[in-house]
Amino acid sequence: MDVITNSKVWEIKELSQAIKNTIENSFEFVKIKGEISKPSFPSSGHIYFSLKDETSLINATIWKWSIANIGLMPEEGLEVICSGKLTTYPGRSSYQINISKIEHAGEGALLKQLEERKKKFFSEGYFNEDLKKKIPSFPKCIGVITSMQGAVIEDILETIQDRWACKVVIYSVPVQGISAASKICKGIEYFNNIANDQRSKPDTLIIARGGGSVEDLWTFNEEIIIKSVFNSNIPIVSAIGHETDTTLIDYASDLRAPTPTKAAVLVTPNKEEVNLKLVNFRKRIQHNVLSKIEEKSDKVLYQIKVFDKLDSFLSLPNQRLDLKIKEKNYFIDNVLSSKNMKFLSLKSSFGSPEQLFSNIDRKVDTFSNKSSNLIDKKINSYQLNFIQKHNIITPRIIYSLIESYSKDIDLNCSIIKKNLEKKVFFNDEKLKNLIRILNNSNLSKIFDKGFVHLEKERGKKVTKLQELLLGESINLTFSDGKAKAKIVERKLN
Fold first, then answer.
1. Could you tell me if 66 and 163 lie in one domain?
2. Which residue among 216, 247, 269 closes a domain?
3. pLDDT at res. 337
4. What HEC string does 109-126 produce?
């Protein structure tokens, strides 16, 4: 067997350089698919990690001047496709890939990673529904974090202007790429740090971008954005992509909108609907005011009717006064007639007429004065009583009496109601006790507990063992039927 040998003897340095030239010239640009392992971010600014599959591993490097255009930051366990150039390190006889671009290996891998992040944030409480903030119904200022390029911002501004013309403050950010996540977080921080008394302080924030692939929307699945949205003091509405697109920011935000245009609709009221509600509200207020006025008018009319009835209340005292005056006049007439008769009878029996008449005139004058004084006092008394009664019977007194009687009636009704409720409750408890006793005395339930009813042949109940004789037949009654037995043995305690 011949042995093939190479007559040339290589220096290690020479051989390493030859290998370096061969590899770098043959693999000037390659794409490698693998899983990222052990990413490192030293202070130098470069990034180091490994790409591995089931059996092999290759070192990878991202120089700091290439990071801005890399497309995707390396993350442990992420399945990716890396583009770059193979290089060797002669000092250690090793090779590596200098990466210029990183892409996700496929939508399936992305969705798997998305699901893992979703579970993680759920467990850490970032998606807790109880911590969601309420979106203001009538905003004075709305903050929008989005890119100034594209139709998204125009759609939002037009919708807000049509529905509710409030102030809009725009914070321009990239919505895709490595730096997008950090700049969006700076926008959220900017709006939260504005003083509350400033007019540019938003009531609501909208984070928006247009549609795209899973890779295009991956920025809104980053952990720093989720935490920034969660920690915001201003309520945030997410409007990322189309209606079918879902990112993790949708779960962390206080409200998710299917599209940017729909986000503008959700944060603003419709001014036409608001005006219509105001008109209806004004009508209800007018109706209520008119109803109250009519109610008060009815009360006033009722009180006027009550005042009109005062004449009927006073008619009886007036009638009594007239009757008293009539009686006094009749009394005076009778007294005067009686005195005249006595005068005529004594005229003939007494002395000189002049003396007699003077005495009579004097007595008549005295009596008349006394009678007049008495009558005046009585009339004044009746008039005073009449005036006092008239003053007592006023609308205010009548209203207060009615109100007092109403309160007494309400109080009596409440007492009667409480007594009835107590009586109903007492009777209900009594009925429940009777039902409980009835159930306990039910034979079927007693049988279910294992008891048996014993009777002799002639139907006599057996309650004690000594009532039974040896050889005697007895009837046994169970819950489901009857049986006969014969006493073959007994043992008394």
1. no
2. 269
3. 72
4. HHHHHHHHHHHHHHHHCC
